[in-house]
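hi! just following up on the protien thing from before. the input was this:
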Amino acid sequence: MTDETDRRDRLRRRFWSSMNGVVGAVLRSRAHPALSGVFMLLTYEGRSTGRSYTLPVAYYLREGGEVWVLSGHGGWARNMRGGHEATALIRGREFRLSGTAVEDTKEVGDMMAELLEERGPRALRGHGLRLPTDRQPTHDEVMHAAEGVCMVRFRVLHETA
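and the predicted 3d structure came back as:
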């Protein structure tokens, strides 16, 4: 990792942290189509605190009623270990979900490779993975990028409204 890459990653994290409130407000509004193709609003209960948390996350709709969300091992994804229910506002509609954190590097890498194959090399940009976006990444590049991240696999249970 270079100093420049570290600086960009810090700036990206700071930017999105400050923008969570703005993005959340847009996703709740009639203007949601501007962002809801990429972001959903996830609400979950913290396992240890019992508090309700809401944050915008980039998501990937999958066939069969699944929604995949790429995350670091820490933070909110920790709450999905072993399975946990959550609510998501997706494209203006609210759904109840059951989520499970996938933390095995090979399985996460396979899921990432599937998304890249289906959607092209730019599919995972914005996650700080350092994957090439001008060509399909190699298997080794994808597996390396999968280290230190997890994919949360949500299954849609029902629409709530």
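The beta strands are 39-45, 52-58, 60-62, 66-72, 84-90, 93-102, 149-159.
The chain has one domain: 3-159.
cheers
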